[in-house]
Automatic annotation (TrEMBL):
<feature type="active site" description="Proton acceptor">
    <location>
        <position position="298"/>
    </location>
</feature>
<feature type="site" description="Interaction with DNA substrate">
    <location>
        <position position="298"/>
    </location>
</feature>
<feature type="binding site">
    <location>
        <position position="207"/>
    </location>
    <ligand>
        <name>Mg(2+)</name>
    </ligand>
</feature>
<keyword id="KW-0460">Magnesium</keyword>
<dbReference type="GO" id="GO:0005634">
    <property type="term" value="C:nucleus"/>
</dbReference>
<feature type="region of interest" description="Disordered">
    <location>
        <begin position="1"/>
        <end position="45"/>
    </location>
</feature>
<protein>
    <submittedName>
        <fullName>Endonuclease/exonuclease/phosphatase</fullName>
    </submittedName>
</protein>
<dbReference type="GO" id="GO:0008311">
    <property type="term" value="F:double-stranded DNA 3'-5' DNA exonuclease activity"/>
</dbReference>
<keyword id="KW-0479">Metal-binding</keyword>
<feature type="binding site">
    <location>
        <position position="56"/>
    </location>
    <ligand>
        <name>Mg(2+)</name>
    </ligand>
</feature>
<feature type="binding site">
    <location>
        <position position="297"/>
    </location>
    <ligand>
        <name>Mg(2+)</name>
    </ligand>
</feature>
<keyword id="KW-0269">Exonuclease</keyword>
<feature type="active site">
    <location>
        <position position="171"/>
    </location>
</feature>
<dbReference type="InterPro" id="IPR005135">
    <property type="entry name" value="Endo/exonuclease/phosphatase"/>
</dbReference>
<feature type="compositionally biased region" description="Pro residues">
    <location>
        <begin position="1"/>
        <end position="10"/>
    </location>
</feature>
<dbReference type="GO" id="GO:0003906">
    <property type="term" value="F:DNA-(apurinic or apyrimidinic site) endonuclease activity"/>
</dbReference>
<feature type="coiled-coil region">
    <location>
        <begin position="377"/>
        <end position="429"/>
    </location>
</feature>
């Protein structure tokens, strides 16, 4: 068999010769364009919004509680959280290093703990940063350990005048006298480090409330403790974003699990997010998130900051939900619809134009996808949404006695969390079997 004839050189075909990127005689403007394109590909692209969250996970420093880190990261992804401040981590150095190694490709992580001779920690605060949302490098992120095990700050790229956003995460002591001194100590650390940036956000478990209505039964904190926090907030021009957004609402982020004693029935809003007053107008979606699967007696608090200078971008065109591509009923109906359209297009006696057949096909595909998608919404997810509405209604009902209201809202909250955990377990089970239900391939 004769070998195929080689194609003629480009010059003989009347085309300009291709210039290699390594050719020293390559046009200067081509090299400059290539360098600009490479720089754009390598440069981190920060999104126009960033969601910041905070949660106390009640200890995640042992083999028995190690799963909480996976739960926290799944919660970040489900809620689109770019930065999550975690309190009461109980991490030692070895376990913190193991977590960093495990999630290194998807997360930046920094842990601050008070270590004892046994190399364990009873406190601990950590910050997780989702690399897919905060598209930065290690060089772009700077950490500041304010108070070991109690306060940690991170600076990340953002669209401010300085090009940075500074987030201070705290886990304050729960003893009132120590709590008051803690805020004074934080202020002193910043006084001793005048070159440090001032926090734009302050978030975490404050273990105190500023107002009596943020605790049930209502009671005020020590005046000295409240004054110490107020001084710190005034110094950094920080405001309670959720309270400013909801001036007349009563919600709680922690509830006691005690069945007897003085803690029975206690609830409070000790988990909060403060924002610099100059940035408050740029924030939205101040939420206390009940529907999250983490095993903790604290709720997730979160807010989103936007770059309001960017142009408005809508939701975009509608598309078929990706989960329908594995849905048997949808695939069967698509096969039937497409087969009918194919037969109609081949029928010479059919007066309908090919364009009309195609238009009819697309409409039927869209309508079928929307109908099946609505039917395929998991019953558990619909149940969660219904329970959330019932919970909101119960919390706002002032006609119900306090004890009865507490029992009802606790019951609804527990049902929501149980369903969320079931959904999380199902997602993990589906993922472990592979995308189509088969065992995952070995690598």
């Amino acid at each position: 068999m004769n070998a195929a004839a080689a194609p003629p050189p480009l010059a003989q075909a009347g085309l300009a010769p291709e210039v290699s990127e390594h050719d020293e005689e390559a046009p200067v403007h081509d090299n400059e364009a290539r360098e600009r394109a490479n720089a754009m590909r390598k440069a981190p692209r920060t999104k126009a919004k960033l969601t910041i969250g905070s949660v106390n996970i009640n200890g995640a420093g042992s083999d028995e509680t190690h799963y909480k880190w996976s739960d926290a990261i799944n919660t970040m992804r489900a809620n689109g959280i770019g930065v999550l401040v975690v309190q009461e981590t109980h991490l030692d150095r070895a376990r913190a290093s193991r977590i960093q190694t495990t999630y290194d490709k998807t997360m930046f992580m920094k842990s601050s703990s008070e270590l004892f001779d046994t190399n364990t920690s009873s406190k601990g605060v950590a910050i997780l940063i989702d690399r897919r949302i905060v598209k930065s490098t290690n060089l772009d992120i700077k950490w500041y350990e304010v108070i070991a095990g109690r306060a940690l700050m991170v600076s990340i790229p953002w669209r401010t005048d300085t090009g940075k956003l500074h987030i201070l995460g705290v886990y304050a002591p729960n003893i009132p006298e120590q709590n008051g001194r803690f805020w004074d100590d934080v202020a002193k650390v910043f006084d001793d480090n005048p070159d440090w940036p001032r926090p734009d956000f302050l978030t975490g478990d404050f273990n105190m409330v500023e107002e009596a209505r943020d605790r049930e039964p209502p009671s005020a904190c020590r005046a000295a403790t409240t004054a110490a926090l107020a001084n710190l907030l005034d110094r950094f021009s920080l405001v309670d974003g959720w309270r400013k957004e909801n001036p007349n609402l009563t919600r709680f982020t922690w509830r006691s699990r005690a069945t007897t004693g003085p803690q029975l029935g206690c609830r409070s809003r000790i988990d909060r997010i403060y924002v610099n007053s100059s940035l408050w107008d740029d924030t939205r979606e101040w939420n206390i998130t009940i529907d999250q699967p983490m095993y903790t007696d604290h709720e997730l608090v979160q807010t989103t900051i936007y770059d309001l200078s960017t142009p408005f971008i809508g939701k975009g065109r509608w598309e078929v939900p990706s989960f329908l591509l594995k849905h048997d009923k949808f695939l069967e109906q698509m096969d039937s619809i497409c087969s009918a359209a194919d037969l109609a297009s081949r029928d010479a006696a059919n007066p309908t134009s090919p364009q009309m057949i195609l238009e009819d096909l697309k409409v039927k595909m869209r309508d079928t996808a929307r109908t099946i998608a609505r039917e395929a919404v998991p019953k558990a997810r619909k149940k969660i949404e219904d329970l959330k509405k019932d919970l909101e209604k119960a919390l706002d009902d002032q006609t119900v006695p306090a004890e009865e209201q507490r029992e009802l809202t606790d019951k609804l909250s527990d049902e929501i969390k149980d369903l969320e955990r079931q959904l999380l377990d199902k997602r993990r089970s589906d993922k472990s079997r592979g995308c189509c239900g088969a065992p995952p391939a070995c690598f």
